Structure to design on (386 residues):
């Protein structure tokens, strides 16, 4: 029996995924956490905790170093809210191009017998432009960016994409009509609209700042519905004040950009749809069950991806440091315990590695696990039975 502890309001569709071998919220000493936005920094992780799954793409609310030291695999659910974010970005493109908010505010504040006449006379101040024929630069063409590129192309826009870290799998989803830029500068120099869709990390913090905004043509509309901090708000305010940027639209409010007519801020609602929450919960539950039952890893943010068919009766999974001779130590120890290895796979991600070993013969399970755990560089050992 596995125990899962949930935080926040997890969609019922996800909770319903768990089969009879799982108990929900019966103990704090859980095998897995299923979370959304709860901040786990400073949280005392139980040693038994094997997995944390974040229902959503972001994971900055999880202390990865602490989780790794505890032998806890951390996962997210990329793509589960991609359509929701895409639809919001498309809405913002239309709002920006047609001055919809200003026009609606004008209409709400005007009334009287002559309203029709005055409206006909004054509505030209809200004249917008059509998106057809305009150029959209999509910075980051992964799960969300590829969908934005597809939707913008369907609206008749010219789309140019830039993503130096594009994976082979993500590349399949980019429409063939999207021009691929070799550099960020190439993507920005002719853009009427720029939409940012990259993850937040040390390399992308302030990725769009003074230099990058200066590359954009005067009158560009900038959108950030990825993560706060990717766009430098101070640089945005300077560009807006100078009349270089026409408008900034974002899902991440900070004091310096609030209460401006040329900035539209939404309260982090990009992935907040009933469908996206259900998608994330279902994907999160399936991720927990796959990892706990098979040891296979996909969409982890602190472990390498490693999916191996379960070919033996027994499986050892070992989370350890990525240092020389670890595989050799493991294999030697198993040979000394008369474990006949049917299959052995290993992968590494930065400073962390992960090994999966399948065997058909029985052995002193407790003794082998204890000896493997005694290796200084090992974080966690698990024994699984088919």
């Amino acid at each position: 029996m596995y125990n899962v502890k949930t935080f926040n309001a997890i969609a019922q569709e996800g909770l319903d995924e768990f089969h009879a071998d799982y108990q929900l919220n019966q103990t704090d000493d859980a095998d897995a956490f299923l979370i959304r936005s709860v901040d786990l920094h400073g949280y005392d992780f139980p040693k038994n905790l094997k997995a944390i799954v974040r229902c959503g793409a972001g994971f900055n609310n999880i202390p990865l170093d602490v989780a790794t030291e505890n032998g806890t695999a951390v996962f997210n659910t990329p793509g589960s809210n991609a359509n929701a974010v895409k639809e919001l970005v498309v809405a913002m493109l239309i709002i920006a191009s047609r001055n919809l908010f200003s026009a609606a505010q004008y209409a709400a504040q005007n009334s009287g017998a002559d309203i029709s006449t005055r409206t006909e006379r004054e509505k030209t101040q809200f004249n917008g432009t059509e998106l057809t024929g305009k150029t959209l630069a999509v910075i980051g063409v992964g799960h969300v960016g590829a969908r934005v590129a597809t939707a913008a192309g369907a609206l008749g826009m010219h789309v140019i994409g830039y993503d130096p870290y594009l994976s082979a799998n993500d590349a399949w989803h980019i429409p063939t009509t999207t021009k691929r830029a070799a550099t960020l500068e190439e993507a920005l120099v002719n853009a009427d609209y720029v939409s940012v869709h990259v993850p937040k990390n040390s390399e992308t913090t302030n990725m769009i700042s003074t230099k990058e905004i200066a590359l954009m043509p005067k009158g560009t509309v900038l959108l950030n519905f990825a993560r706060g901090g990717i766009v430098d708000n101070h640089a945005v305010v300077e560009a807006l004040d100078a009349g270089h940027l026409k408008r900034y639209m974002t899902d991440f409010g900070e004091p310096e950009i609030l209460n401006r007519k040329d900035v539209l801020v939404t309260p982090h609602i990009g992935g907040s749809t009933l469908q996206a929450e259900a998608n994330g919960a279902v994907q999160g539950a399936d991720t927990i069950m796959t990892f706990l039952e098979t040891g296979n890893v996909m969409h982890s943010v602190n472990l390498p991806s490693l999916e191996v068919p379960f070919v033996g009766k027994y499986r050892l999974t070992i989370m350890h440091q990525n240092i020389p001779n670890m595989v050799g130590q493991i294999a030697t120890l198993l040979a000394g315990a008369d474990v006949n290895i049917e299959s052995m796979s290993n992968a590494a991600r930065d400073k962390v590695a992960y090994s999966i070993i399948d065997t058909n013969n029985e052995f002193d399970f407790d003794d082998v696990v204890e000896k493997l755990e005694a290796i200084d560089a090992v974080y966690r050992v698990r024994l699984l039975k088919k």
Summary: The CA atoms of residues 241 and 262 lie 9 Å apart. The chain has a mean pLDDT of 94.
